[in-house]
Amino acid sequence: MAVFDSKNFNGAVFAAYVEKTPNLNRNELIKSKAVKKRQDIADTFKDQVGGNFAVIPITGRIGGKPVNYNGATDIESKSIKTYTQGRIVVGRADSWVENDFSYDLTGVDFLEQIAQQVGEYWDGVDQNTILSTLKGAFSMTGTENLKFVNGHTYDITGKTGDEAMFGATTLNTGMQKATGDRKSKFTLAIMHSNVSTNVENLKLLAYLKYTDRDGVERNLTLGTLNGRIVLVDDNVPTETVYSSAGVYTVTVGGTLASGDKITVAGKTATLNSTSAASAGAAAGAVVTALGTMDEYTVTRSDGVITFTEKAGYYGTGAPDAEIESTAGTVEVDTTTAAGSYTAYTTYVLGDGAIEFTDCGVKVPYEMYRDPAKNGGQTFLFSRQRKIFAPYGISWINSGIISPTDAQLETGSNWELANSNEDGGAKEYFPHKGIPIARIISKG
Prior knowledge:
Layout: H1 11-20, H2 24-31, E1 35-37, H3 40-46, E2 53-59, E3 82-88, E4 90-99, H4 100-106, H5 111-137, H6 143-151, E5 153-155, H7 170-179, E6 186-191, H8 193-201, E7 206-211, E8 217-225, E9 228-232, E10 238-242, E11 247-255, E12 261-264, E13 267-270, H9 279-290, E14 296-301, E15 304-309, E16 321-324, E17 327-336, E18 340-350, E19 354-358, E20 365-370, E21 377-390, E22 393-395, H10 405-408, E23 414-416, E24 436-441
Parallel strand pairs: 1-19, 5-24, 6-9
Antiparallel strand pairs: 2-3, 4-21, 6-18, 7-8, 8-9, 10-18, 11-15, 11-17, 12-13, 12-16, 14-15, 18-24, 19-21, 20-21, 22-23
Helix pairs in contact: 1-5
């Protein structure tokens, strides 16, 4: 049966093929228990406004200290706090098209092949959604939220040499910093290939293997480190960090005349008979026009103006410079480029770190045929609505129907789950109970 033939297409059968498609990354996420299925929540969404945002209760744990049982001390009773967590449905859709002529030439058009590609495509989308969600959680601000962000972040980029690289003790230390004696709950790490390669070179990472349909044993993009599964994904956050000042020069030269205009960093100096008398005088007029700059410390030696980046503005780069003149010139050069390094984020997840719900759609797969376009084309449309909720962290922007990746990555859309009580009685979910950590390294 041809796949792209709307007369024969059966959406339910196709969905079954997609679901049966083995995806190794997804399977390992689920087997690691880092992603926990919560299909019971799907019914809750049907009962709430719009069916896209719901508030779910999280029952706290008993705690406190016992009193001394000596027959004279009153026993103090304590209640269990209930926290609420907002969850948002992430909806995504896509489509693919096949020309009749392509099939006429190749004869390749098999249901299982198409289903495998579609299944792997959506698994990649889901994984990116999880990464965007984690980035948003670690972008939260506010006193209580920062207890999670800072407490669950192990940043070693401030160290020097090999100590700033992901090494033999990095994972273990990062997990302990996040959850203390509960670090054994962590089961999976998601890291950039640069980091995984560094760890592999240290002979700390062993890649898992599988046997393909042809009986050939191949490496997976999965390994193990300190007993935890390692998933390699270059979509984890990376950031260029500038660590030292850049130094740049603007050199004034040529034959200058009164009325010439020199513009540097958006500030213009119009030369008069005095400032046009020499390159040094013209450069002095430019420095006067610039005044005190936020980005640079500015000095001058004759016709050469030197711009040194200030702390907080490393990586700004050289200022723009131009001249309106018949024979005068300005030239921009780099004396010292700003020092920089790449900071790589590794996420570490424990049991139930992400709770997953497939909310479903009315028509997940369907066909549409245009017999005229390009001699005949058939389209495959696909839709999905899913929830990826980080345990203990609440989505708070109920005004969004389906968040984009950028909105998921925005910290102001998230906060720690809390008791929603007024005033000082409000309590936040204990961040040590959230099995999510972040390690930032130079490689």
